[in-house]
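Fill in residues.
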């Protein structure tokens, strides 16, 4: 006995530790949310989550833990994190709000309200209303800050009454919440299904359970204002002949026993709720958003088609379109429409304004975060990650272009670990991937220039070079701080001090920075300070280093090895992507041939070949290929002509005295002239 108690104590301690860790995790996630907000980075970082999930599941496997259950736990943690970040990017105004819901404690609206507000506020008060109208009035009259009301259910359809009431009120929709609805038949303990004479619940819930109720002979149904109140009534009256259909929570709160679970019999049944407030909110453009509108239209041929077209032509999806007769003798039909997109987006605004001209009346009910989109990406990733490929030989190469048939490399075919069983799609079919570095999107069809000194030498040299890079129109500042030099006696770079200078210069001139990492131990720390990590030519097949940068969430500039074939180059990219980091820019920088007139032979044919064989953006480094200043511009022109997405050029304010690669460095003016010519 003593032993069991000891073990239980250990378990309690571990559970406390888990809670501490969870609380630390959510703190960090919130902090990241704040940084994302400042830097304009998206909340949905699919690549980062992919990497996280792959890593976690691999580790779970090494510890003999069930990947299935670990995936479930992480699914909830990532969801929690996203909700927390959403609350930073689409903040609600009040610190300790009052939230109205329809029904009693334990009602589904209560569960939804609790789920929504518990990530946003440590302190909020909930109040039940008898009717939807009462909840809306509480908000519009300023007695309450928010109301949480049901919008639609997968089985019963839309809650038209709620939509109508919100439309008529001065309130706006500011959020949505989705909860699974597990409907249980609940009665006083000891009651049997055969005892029942009457079942109470909310009318929509009774409708959802019609099939089950039809199987009960001689049992009446009686609509009640909500499911939790129905459960409370059954408890108060204490009769074995009565039951309610309600949530498990409501049963617990009313001390009732569950006679039957999942009585809809269809598995997942989901209800979506609207959060309404007195004032609309604006949703950060980084989050997936929805905009709800209501409008009324005359009953004439072609009018609805013109509305649908107005959105369709602007590529705006209508997630929902519902109609209701107005019944007020006006002959108009009212529509409720949910649009995928942000109310502040120009295209959406324009579409709404053009529809306003056709409609008799139109009201934007609100713009809010698309909860399903926010959560579904993670779920999909997890589902796919735990879904072990039935054909372990089939490994998809991540860098293949979507269009090309997935070519299987014989070496890659051999599964070396369970990791190779995880099948992730390559990028969307036929599309080139875009790698975002600061404001520059490599692969977006524009031509970008990375420029900066070969090495960071001192504050003045770097400041002048950064200024010149910025003035000339470069979008990323380069600078080596760990230098791979052929001779150990040459300048090796300023190391961490150099990185600090580079970061400062990047911040001063508002340029993201890229710098080379040479050793695995440097990677995490450099990734904290640099916006992009460079893998130098000499390290293209340093597989540990490739894996390490693959574990970060930083874009990687991967330079082609001096003696590497295109196949080997792509396989190096594959090493990075296999760890979940898909943000790879390939850089052709010349290869070693018999030719000695140039430092390396710039393989411009690699550019179109790579374009055939990968969706990744391609950069060309004319400086290291040329080795001489005079050749840089012609090679850069060539790179642009053959279709490179970007070039990387070395510059120096005083090339004659450069500590590294002076002969190939352009001056600021040279760079300016070159960029002007290329644009
Ligand atoms: C560099 O870009 O600083 C560099 C050393 O280039 P590479 O690795 O291509 O020689
Ligand atoms: Mn160099």
């Amino acid at each position: 006995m003593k032993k069991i108690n000891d073990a239980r104590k250990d378990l309690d301690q571990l559970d406390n530790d888990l809670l501490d860790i969870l609380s630390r995790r959510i703190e960090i996630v919130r902090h990241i949310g704040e940084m994302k907000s400042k830097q304009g980075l998206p909340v949905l970082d699919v690549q980062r989550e992919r990497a996280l999930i792959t890593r976690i599941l691999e580790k779970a496997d090494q510890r003999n833990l069930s990947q299935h259950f670990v995936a479930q736990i992480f699914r909830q943690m990532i969801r929690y994190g996203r909700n927390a970040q959403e609350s930073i990017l689409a903040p609600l105004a009040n610190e300790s709000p009052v939230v109205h819901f329809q029904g009693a404690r334990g009602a589904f609206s209560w569960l939804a309200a609790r789920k929504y507000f518990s990530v946003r506020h440590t302190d909020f008060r909930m109040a039940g209303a008898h009717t939807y109208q009462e909840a809306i009035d509480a908000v519009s009259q300023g007695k309450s800050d928010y109301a949480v009301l049901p919008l639609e259910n997968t089985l019963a359809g839309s809650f038209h009454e709620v939509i109508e009431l919100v439309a008529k009120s001065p309130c706006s929709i500011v959020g949505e919440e989705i909860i699974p609805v597990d409907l249980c038949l609940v009665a006083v303990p000891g009651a049997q299904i055969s005892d029942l004479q009457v079942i109470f619940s909310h009318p929509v819930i009774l409708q959802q359970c019609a099939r089950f109720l039809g199987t009960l002979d001689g049992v009446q149904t009686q609509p009640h204002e909500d499911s939790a109140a129905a459960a409370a009534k059954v408890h108060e009256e204490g009769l074995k002949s009565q039951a309610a259909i309600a949530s498990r929570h409501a049963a617990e709160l009313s001390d009732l026993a569950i006679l039957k679970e999942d009585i809809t019999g269809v598995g997942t049944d989901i209800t979506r709720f609207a959060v309404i407030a007195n004032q609309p909110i604006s949703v950060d453009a980084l989050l997936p958003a929805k905009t709800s509108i209501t409008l009324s239209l005359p009953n004439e041929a072609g009018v609805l088609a013109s509305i649908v077209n107005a959105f369709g032509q602007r590529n705006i999806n209508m997630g929902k379109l519902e109609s209701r007769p107005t019944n007020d003798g006006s002959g108009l039909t009212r529509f409720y429409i949910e649009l995928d997109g942000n109310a502040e987006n120009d295209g959406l605004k324009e579409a709404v304004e053009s529809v306003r001209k056709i409609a008799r009346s139109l009201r934007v009910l609100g713009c809010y975060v698309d909860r399903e989109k926010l959560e579904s990406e993670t779920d999909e990733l997890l589902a796919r990650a735990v879904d072990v490929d039935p054909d372990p030989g089939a490994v998809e190469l991540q860098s293949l272009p979507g269009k090309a048939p997935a070519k299987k490399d014989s070496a890659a075919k051999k599964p070396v670990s369970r990791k190779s069983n995880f099948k992730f799609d390559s990028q969307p079919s036929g599309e080139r991937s875009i790698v975002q570095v600061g404001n520059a999107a490599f692969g977006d069809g524009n031509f970008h220039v990375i420029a900066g000194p070969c090495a960071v030498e001192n504050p003045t040299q770097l400041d002048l070079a950064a200024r010149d890079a910025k003035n000339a129109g470069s979008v990323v500042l380069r600078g080596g701080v760990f230098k791979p030099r052929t001779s150990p006696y040459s300048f090796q770079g300023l190391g961490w001090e150099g990185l600090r200078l580079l970061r400062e210069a990047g911040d001063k001139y508002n340029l993201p920075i890229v710098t080379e990492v040479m050793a695995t131990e440097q990677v995490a720390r450099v990734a904290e300070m640099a916006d992009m990590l460079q893998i130098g030519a000499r390290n293209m097949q340093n597989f540990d280093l490739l894996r390490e940068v693959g574990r970060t969430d930083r874009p990687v500039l991967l330079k082609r090895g001096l003696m590497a074939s295109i196949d080997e180059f792509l396989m190096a990219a594959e090493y990075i992507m296999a760890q979940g980091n898909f943000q790879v820019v390939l850089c052709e920088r010349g290869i070693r041939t018999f030719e000695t007139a140039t430092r390396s032979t710039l393989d411009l044919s690699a550019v179109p070949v790579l374009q055939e064989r990968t969706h990744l953006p391609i950069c060309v480094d004319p400086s290291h290929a040329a080795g001489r200043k005079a050749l840089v511009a012609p090679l850069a022109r060539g790179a642009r002509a053959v279709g490179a997405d970007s070039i990387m050029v070395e510059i120096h304010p005083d090339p004659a005295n450069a500590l590294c690669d002076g002969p190939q460095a352009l001056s600021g003016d040279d760079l300016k002239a070159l960029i002007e010519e290329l644009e």
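The two ends are 79 Å apart (CA to CA).
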